[in-house]
Amino acid sequence: MAGSQRYIRYIVIAIAFLGLLFYISTSSTTTVPGIPVKDSASSSSSSSSTLQPTTPNDSKSLPPATAPGERMNATFVTLARNSDVWEIARSIRQVEDRFNKKYNYDWVFLNDAEFDDQFKKVTSALTSGNTKYGKIPKEHWSFPEWIDVDKAAKVREDMREKKIIYGDSVSYRHMCRYESGFFFRHPLMLDYEWYWRVEPSIELFCDINYDTFKFMADNKKKYSFVLSLYEYVETIPTLWDSAKAFMKEHPEHIAKDNSMAFLSDDGGNTYNHCHFWSNFEIGNLNWLRSKAYIDYFNKLDRDGGFFYERWGDAPVHSIAAAIMLPKDEMHFFNDIAYYHVPFTHCPTGEQYRMDHKCHCNPKDNFDWQGYSCLTRYFDLNDMKKPEGYEKEQS
């Protein structure tokens, strides 16, 4: 008898529990603190087709460009290796989020080896424009026949002992030579007129709400920068000698209203080592492919300083732009907030930073520091320094 009563008690408890669950699941008035509850009429009027997915981009392609207007014949260009995939992924995301999702410009990737499937898969998934992958010809990434490789090896050893940055690197020298004289001649680049150079692990701090390529074209600019500084003296001891020899041989390539005063304090006799940092550049490819620039590069290449010293592409480009282009064909992009280790360009001007959702710390801005050459550029062009620059000087 006791066993039967116990059995009946279990059945009653189970029925009560199921009833409670049914009540909770069907109740329209159950609330959770802090979460509003719609009534049944409101809920029934909402169609599942109008609900938005929680993932902002669940398709295989990025959203279409949103900025109106024509597009320029332009591309981003990156020199990278397969091992750089995650560093360049960071850079692509920065550029896309701050600028290119509105314009969908193409991206060209160049490598001295074949790109692997992972690199292509990751980068193509992140870019909103077309992606193109090119291998650098061996003759553009090797010692030219006129270079004494034993002499070049001795230079690298000496620089290693002196602890000069990249002083003992062969690949760095090939990179500098390639960026100085060949990237704009790669078959994939011949399709374009404008380029924006992007390197791995860069950061863009502010929204860019206009087409920088169109700005360059509309204002007849051919070369631009965001950071300028002094080059390591030990890496370019004879670069200026080669540049002066070029100017003497080809006076027809020298612009009348040039920026020599940015490079030299004595009318061109000596070089003050100022240059534009070329890991960021927006420029005109037709200028780089011009006879003037090719003559200049060929002169420097024959002199051997890319291997017998450690000439960087930044001073090479800078000297060319400063002597071959009129001052008004160069441009400083104060509004492109940029970081490449170890320097930051954070636009001077609080209101601009607020309006363009900038997340850089103005205390990190390199522009008005002692090792920057920007003041020299402003003075040369009679430009008024932005309000508040004094607070960023040191």
Structure write-up:
The protein is α/β, with parallel strands linked by helices and 394 residues long. The protein is 37% helix and 11% strand. The strands form three sheets. It has a seven-stranded mixed beta sheet with strand order 3-2-1-4-9-6-10. Strands 5-11-12 form a three-stranded antiparallel beta sheet. A hairpin with a 2-residue loop joins strand 11 (338-340) and strand 12. The longest helix is centred in the N-terminal third of the chain and has 25 residues, at 2-26. The protein starts with a helix and ends in a 14-residue tail after the last helix. Mean pLDDT is 87; it is low at 20-60. Residues 35-69 are annotated as: Disordered. GO terms for molecular function: alpha-1,2-mannosyltransferase activity. The chain crosses the membrane at residues 7-25.
Instruction: Please give the largest β-sheet.
Output: 7 strands, mixed
Helix content: 25-40%
Please give the oligomerization state of what you see: single chain
Count of strand segments = 12
β content, as a range?
Answer: 5-15%
Can you write the helix and strand succession as a string? HHEHEHEHHEEHEEHHEEHHHHEEEHH
Q: Total helix count?
A: 15
Strand arrangement in the largest pleated sheet: 3-2-1-4-9-6-10
User: Radius of gyration from the CA trace?
Assistant: 30 Å
Low-confidence stretches: 20-60
Cα end-to-end separation:
96 Å
The helix/strand class is alpha/beta
What is the averaged pLDDT score? 87
Shape: globular
Transmembrane segments: 7-25
Protein name: Glycolipid 2-alpha-mannosyltransferase
Biased composition (Low complexity): 40-49
GO cellular component, one term: membrane
